[in-house]
Design a protein that fits this description.
The protein has 290 residues and is α/β, with parallel strands linked by helices. It has 12 helices and 9 strands. The radius of gyration is 21 Å and the shape is elongated. The relative contact order is 0.10.
Length: 290
């Protein structure tokens, strides 16, 4: 069987099973270690037995509901390659927009700082913390996660990408409080899906629930952070969060309780949905929509 015949038959199978017909090529790129242009030139070559066996195994795993990213063991985020497995959430494009906005804020509000101390709470694969450390050299980055297995993945990614991050294992803010740390920039993408909300079975059945679900209304971890976060902030600081697109009203209630004297801003994503929250703690002259 040629590569062309194999991919064509796989694409027909994907259509029949109502699955993504792009997956066969993605998996074959990975198994054969070929770039798209290389594959195009070799389409009429025969598939060797070992490659076919691995490819069929991967395709079967995908058809049984495993995410392509876990099958490949990696995902790209901000053009960096991150290792991922079932112990960490798969990095999303929406979170790249959060990172972009954090970098803009570092430029706008901390341009006179030689060093900006930043923490990422609930780091998972380390995608946010590592990308920020690589993209902005003035950042001194710390990252926490309650999961030792997730931290093992994050540490491996930091090593592979040559990013200097200080990692702590522990529940939310606790390791930062225990080490008496103070930050200029606080970042978190906490679990924000309400526990009873229906979600894609591929996500629900594969990705770690501790990184997905945020209590009855999705804001459990935000309130937990808001309650004690001032203990780890410098006199002036910015807080940045990813959030559910439909949580603005609930979030405003929480902010008016915990941050009634601070300005805040909801930032829309590329689809025009409120997906990011920035809080300006003791910072004046803020341009916000509030």
């Amino acid at each position: 069987m040629t590569i062309r015949e194999l991919i064509h038959s796989s694409e027909l199978l994907m259509d029949e099973k109502q699955k993504d017909s792009n997956v066969p090529k993605v998996l074959f790129y990975h198994v054969s270690n070929m770039e798209p242009h290389e594959l195009y030139l070799k389409m009429d070559e025969e598939v060797d037995r070992d490659t076919l066996e691995i490819y069929n195994n991967y395709l079967d795993r995908y058809l049984k509901g495993e995410p392509v990213q876990y099958i490949k063991g990696k995902e790209y985020f901000f053009a960096y390659e991150f290792k991922v497995n079932e112990d960490v959430l798969i990095p999303r494009y929406e979170t790249e927009e959060l990172v972009e906005n954090i970098l803009y804020h570092v430029d706008d509000y901390f341009k006179d700082y030689k060093t900006v101390k930043l923490c990422d709470v609930g780091t998972g694969s380390g995608a946010i913390a590592i990308t920020l450390a690589l993209e902005e050299e003035k950042l001194d980055v710390y990252a926490t996660d309650i999961s030792e297995k997730a931290l093992a993945v994050a540490k491996e990614n930091a090593k592979d990408l040559n990013a200097h991050i200080t990692f702590y294992q522990g529940d939310m803010l606790q390791p930062l409080i225990d080490h008496h740390l103070k930050f200029d920039f606080f970042v978190s993408n906490p679990p924000y899906i309400p526990v009873h909300q229906d979600i894609d079975p591929v996500v629900k059945n594969n990705e770690p629930h501790v990184a997905l679900f945020g209590g009855e209304d999705g804001l459990y971890f935000y309130r937990k952070i808001f309650e004690r976060v001032k203990e780890v902030l410098n006199d002036k600081a910015i807080l940045a969060f990813e959030m559910g697109f439909d949580q603005k009203e609930l979030m405003e209630e929480a902010l008016d309780y915990y941050f009634k004297d601070s300005r805040y801003q909801f930032i829309k994503d590329i689809n025009g949905k409120n997906r990011m929250l920035f809080i300006y703690y003791n910072i004046e002259h803020v341009h916000t929509d509030r």
